[in-house]
UniProtKB/TrEMBL annotation:
Belongs to the multicopper oxidase family. Residues 45-82, 99-175, 205-321, 375-508 form the Plastocyanin-like domain. Keywords: Copper, Metal-binding, Oxidoreductase. This is Spore coat protein A. It comes from Bacillus smithii 7_3_47FAA. The keyword Metal-binding applies. Pfam families: Cu-oxidase (PF00394), Cu-oxidase_2 (PF07731), Cu-oxidase_3 (PF07732). It comes from the Bacteria. InterPro entries: Cu-oxidase-like_N, Cu-oxidase_2nd, Cu-oxidase_C, Cu-oxidase_fam, Cupredoxin. One of its GO terms (molecular function) is oxidoreductase activity. CDD domains: CuRO_1_BOD_CotA_like, CuRO_2_CotA_like, CuRO_3_CotA_like.
Length: 510
């Protein structure tokens, strides 16, 4: 079933209004429900899950330093929309089939409000997971201005809950951002990019079995999921009408597994001004931007002097990344821009030459180095299982950084895929990536480097919370742990990997 491209307009995501706001705190309530929504005008309405009756959820906009309280409420049905695999840890038959817990991705937050995967809750908080601590989460928003996002994080079913629609933007603003005079208001548009596959009746397709089915199992985890259509802000291949002026776009890859390498078919540059954790020091003009699942890029596109032109944002990232199949004409198309609106006023916004200082964390300040492997094994049914440091989720905690200490983590990728590794609580900086001999490592447990250390790509030189750990490479990241102590997680953000064990708890200790 092939759907026409560029016949639906890009949805502009609404901004959520708080229930209560005074000088000291802001309070929101966010309800999760099941509903039908049109994802393409040639498709029947699709049953999805969403926050506040919309997929993607409404954008939550807060000020840096604002104390925000959010009550995330689960009003979803008892039966899951998608096939649950009860052999997956955390999703066995002894827990309710539908469970949720919300994580604000990239936020620096106390652990009880971080959305720990076993802090799940059911409808009306009737049942809760072993680590559930509170109904109302607290976000102190001590970060600089940045593009975060919120999504579900329930152990064993994150891939299904996010695919069903549980994701939205969470933007932090600050004074410095306003002084930069960037495109703003209707000239600033967050873009959430995802891939899905539909049944003929418009319902969401998600595989029940891996390609080699296991006869005795009802449903089964798949090693990765690639949809055959691309959606932006919940519409399949939309178009956006723009004025001939500068626009700011916040790009987010919210797909389960798919990577995107984005380009404009007009050959134009993206002026990238920010990474996951906020502004870079200087903008860079780039022809393409690679985004692994959960990565963000803050960019400006200049449509000045392009009246009447259309341009397409394309994707040429292979799946799986980096050595899989190239995209086809469908998965290679993201959305269209139409420069058809008249200029409503003179464009006085700028692409600043300098945004903010970005002091490098010095390697000498690290008190500990950790060597952590990314592994691919098989389970008792012969299915792929991905592990961090060759340990399962419930193995004893081995990563226990001290509050205020700086560490360097060596991510040693022994698999054939690039894994986007995400750490909760903190932002880090990428030091370098370096080729090494994988076979020798597997035999001798020693790193034999086979090439020079490669600095991070220009588009990654900023604060990050998710890093692409490439095959045959050791990726080094450096970070300072704090300002909170407690229980957090680090994991691969390919959701099919995360759900099948590629996630580990870590604890920040006093």
């Amino acid at each position: 079933m092939i759907l026409s491209k560029f016949i639906d307009e890009l949805p502009i995501l609404p901004i959520l209004k708080p229930r209560w706001k005074d000088p000291f705190h802001t309070y929101y309530e966010v309800n999760m429900t099941e509903f039908k929504q049109s994802l393409h005008s040639e498709l029947n309405d699709t049953t999805v899950w969403g926050y506040e009756g919309s997929y993607p959820g409404p954008t939550i906009e807060v000020e840096s330093g604002e104390k925000v309280f959010i009550k995330w409420m689960n009003n979803l049905p008892d039966k899951h929309l998608l096939p649950v695999d009860h052999t997956v840890h955390g999703a066995h038959v002894d827990v309710p089939e539908v469970r949720t817990v919300v994580h604000v991705h990239g936020a620096s937050v106390e652990w009880e409000s971080d959305g720990y995967p076993e802090a799940w809750f059911t409808q009306g908080f009737k049942q809760v997971g072993p680590y559930f601590r509170k109904q109302i989460y607290q976000y102190d928003n001590d970060d600089r201005a940045c593009t975060l996002w919120y999504h579900d994080h329930a152990l064993g079913i994150t891939r299904l809950n996010v695919y069903a629609g549980l994701a939205g933007f969470y933007l932090i603003r600050d004074h410095r951002e306003r002084l930069l005079n960037l495109p703003s208001g209707k000239y600033e548009v967050p873009l959430m990019i995802q891939d899905k596959t539909f049944h003929k009746d418009g319902s969401l397709y998600y595989p029940k079995q891996p390609e080699k089915p296991v006869p005795e199992l009802e449903t089964s985890i798949v090693p990765e999921f690639f949809g055959d259509t691309i959606l932006v802000n919940g519409k399949v291949w939309p178009y956006l009408k723009v004025e001939p002026r500068k626009y700011r776009f916040r790009l987010l890859n919210a797909s389960n597994t798919r990577f995107y390498r984005l380009k404009l078919d007009s050959g134009q540059l993206f002026y990238q001004i920010g990474t996951d954790g906020g502004f870079m020091q200087h903008p860079i003009g780039v022809k393409e931007i690679t985004l692994a699942p959960a990565e963000r890029a803050d960019v400006i596109i200049d449509f000045t002097n392009l009246e009447g032109k259309n341009m397409i944002m394309t994707n040429d990232a292979p799946s799986p990344f980096p050595t899989g199949d190239p995209p086809n004409e469908n998965t290679g198309t993201v959305m269209q821009f139409r420069v058809t609106l008249p200029l409503s006023s003179v464009d006085t916004s700028v692409i600043p030459a300098y945004m903010m200082p970005l002091p490098k964390i010095k390697e000498q300040s690290a008190s500990k180095k950790r060597y952590l492997t990314l592994n691919e094994n098989t389970d008792k049914y012969g299915r792929k299982i991905m592990l961090l440091d060759n340990k399962h989720w419930d193995a004893p905690i081995t990563e226990n950084p001290k509050l205020g200490s700086t560490e360097i983590w060596y991510l040693i990728n022994l698999t054939e895929d690039t894994h986007p590794i995400h750490l909760h609580l903190i932002n880090f900086q990428i030091l370098d990536r370096r080729e090494f001999n994988v076979e020798k490592f597997k035999k001798e447990r020693m790193i034999h480097y086979t090439g020079p250390a490669l600095p991070p790509e220009p588009q990654e030189r900023g604060w990050k919370d998710t890093v692409r750990a490439n095959p045959n490479q050791v990726t080094r990241i450096i970070m300072k742990f704090g300002p909170y102590t407690g229980l957090y997680v680090w994991h691969c953000h390919i959701l099919e990997h995360e759900d099948y064990e590629m996630m580990r708890p870590y604890i920040v200790i006093r």
